[in-house]
């Protein structure tokens, strides 16, 4: 039963690796790496990014956020998340707005900023919005510290797992779940 042995070993290693301490370190790095524009030095880097909304006061209600976010004519964009609205906390003067991952960080972050309203790729499409200005956001990022000797599949597994755990901690206003 090789699969049982693999599953048992994998579960142990998984729990020992993806700890709360690791997730907190990733979030700390994301907060430390906040910038106002697309970091151009991350073209081929695997990692996690967070859009932070620079706003003194959060929206007064989920309905207000949802109405401002759901602009007519903007297609294939993430939804506002009701359950996260109450749990979203201010972090160093901003609120976590969206959490994502990519194997080409700069390119993916730029797509969120520049894609037009009806672009086929799922994204924030911030340049086309009336209620959100590009200057209202900061972007934090974490780069996966692995070299090219690791397979793309391993790198994707790691960033996918960490993205989920970062999302669970930060409760972004927009996105999945």
From TrEMBL:
InterPro entries: GIY-YIG_endonuc_sf (IPR035901)
Entries under SUPFAM superfamilies matching the protein: GIY-YIG endonuclease
Name listed for the protein in its UniProt record: GIY-YIG nuclease family protein
Originating organism: Flavobacterium bernardetii
């Amino acid at each position: 039963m090789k699969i049982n042995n693999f599953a048992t070993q994998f579960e142990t290693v998984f729990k020992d690796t993806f700890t709360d301490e690791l997730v907190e370190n990733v979030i700390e790095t994301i907060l430390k790496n906040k910038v106002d524009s697309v970091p151009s030095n991350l073209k081929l880097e695997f990692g996690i990014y967070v859009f932070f909304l620079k706003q003194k006061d959060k929206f007064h209600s989920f309905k207000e956020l949802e109405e401002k976010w759901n602009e007519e004519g903007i297609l294939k964009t993430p939804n506002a998340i009701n359950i996260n609205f109450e749990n979203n906390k201010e972090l160093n003067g901003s609120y976590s707005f969206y959490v994502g991952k990519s194997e080409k960080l700069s390119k993916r972050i730029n797509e969120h900023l520049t894609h037009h309203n009806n672009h086929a790729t799922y994204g924030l499409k911030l340049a086309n919005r009336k209620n959100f200005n590009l200057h209202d956001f900061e972007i934090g990022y974490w780069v996966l510290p692995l070299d090219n000797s690791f397979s793309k599949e391993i790198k994707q597994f790691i960033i996918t797992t960490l993205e989920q755990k970062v999302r669970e901690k930060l409760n972004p206003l927009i996105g999945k779940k």
